[in-house]
Amino acid sequence: MDAQPGRSVTSKVLALLDAFTPASPALTLSELARRAELPLPTASRRVAELVAWGALERGDDGRYRIGLRLWEVGSLAPRGLGLRELALPTMEDLYEVTHENVQLAVRQDVELVFIERIAGRHAVPVLTRVGGRFALHATGVGLVLLAYAPAEVQEQVLAAPLERYTPLTITDPGRLRRGLAEVRRTGYAVSDRQVTMDALSVAAPICGPEGAVVAAISLVVAQHRADPVALAPLVQAAGRTISRSLGTPYGLPRSAG
Amino acid sequence: MDAQPGRSVTSKVLALLDAFTPASPALTLSELARRAELPLPTASRRVAELVAWGALERGDDGRYRIGLRLWEVGSLAPRGLGLRELALPTMEDLYEVTHENVQLAVRQDVELVFIERIAGRHAVPVLTRVGGRFALHATGVGLVLLAYAPAEVQEQVLAAPLERYTPLTITDPGRLRRGLAEVRRTGYAVSDRQVTMDALSVAAPICGPEGAVVAAISLVVAQHRADPVALAPLVQAAGRTISRSLGTPYGLPRSAG
């Protein structure tokens, strides 16, 4: 049943796309209808239109998946593949000189989205997935993105419960607030065993042409052999190189905090 | 004006997404309305809904661009990022041992879409862009994808004018047909200066679990130092490695030609 009968057709179509998640990338028609809160005949009609256009593809198993055409249109997002293409040479350089994990992320509302990741084969395992989301308060890239986010975003994150991933995750709002000030003071963030007990990440901001922080880059290394003070300049230099390729005239980010 | 007043709302929403191309990734509202063939008030309403969801983002310049949320949903396409994630380690190995350009592509209707590319910094320049399209009849990956495409796709391509990129592009349908038979016989394709006069590519198929060819991988090298017969086994081995990671039980693709 349509739980919100006043919804526009556009919102119903988008609700069908929302039904797909990294954990459920393949859905039957009835699963789709249920997740989008649409009556089956309505869902069936919209899904057929989405398949005809290529936004969805129907597999031999009868399940629907996100179609290549949607990936193709999505690849035009400047904050997705556009940023990735500009950042990749610098990320590869950072990988070549460290052989550690290199990550690139942007903020979407009160979470981060991983745009690219170079996973060191012999480096500490990382759980991140390109296109995947994560909370802002625990990872190095998240702390950078939060430190330079608009004040209302920071307040929203600080007001909500802060999920604990390890005993070292900062879940006290006051401590987190002081940590963010420190990130803005030093220009880099360190997440020391705050996501997993074996990893430490060092992250730095990437600025757009207007000087605002638009993304963050990090190195994720095995905690036991990590020296954040030695890694920070390396990551900061990479962040500045990418900022320059984005056309930023600023050396340092303008704080929004 | 709405050129097709009988169009469904879904198709109007999708027409707004269709308006964005690699050549025009940022559009004003009136450009969007014109390209989608929608009256301005209709376009304005739909665009506002797409912005609210995150499918589009409005820049400081007032132009609309594809939003990160659409990239995020698009990243769930198995034939896009899913394939790329499985293929990347093998593509990186191929790059490490050759330092040449490595490309990954899938077929979408009668064209190919580049899913990933590792560009050798000192290798011959390639024009391809991840998410970009190209004709099937000229590149190595295109010839592989066409050789194993369903017969109706082959006939459609052979019946249409075949664009000439260089004096060596095969534009004669009979010659192309014989070339495709040769690709199926040998299990690899060679495009020798058929796209640009300085490049040669060698491509091989990637098979899905059912044995059908689902993608193609290629090495693109400077033509003057290329030895296709030496490169072919390398590319074919990479194609088989990726096929295995896709779960294919077949050693060789089943021909659809």
Automatic annotation (TrEMBL), chains A, B:
InterPro entries: GAF-like_dom_sf (IPR029016), HTH_MetabolicPath_Reg (IPR050707), Tscrpt_reg_IclR_C (IPR014757), Tscrpt_reg_IclR_N (IPR005471), WH-like_DNA-bd_sf (IPR036388), WH_DNA-bd_sf (IPR036390). The keyword Transmembrane helix does not apply. Residues 7-68 form the HTH iclR-type domain. Residues 69-248 form the IclR-ED domain. Gene3D superfamilies: 3.30.450.40, Winged helix-like DNA-binding domain superfamily/Winged helix DNA-binding domain. The keyword Electron transport does not apply. GO terms for molecular function: DNA binding; DNA-binding transcription factor activity. It comes from the Bacteria. Keywords: DNA-binding, Transcription, Transcription regulation. GO terms for biological process: negative regulation of DNA-templated transcription. This is IclR family transcriptional regulator. It comes from Micromonospora sediminimaris.
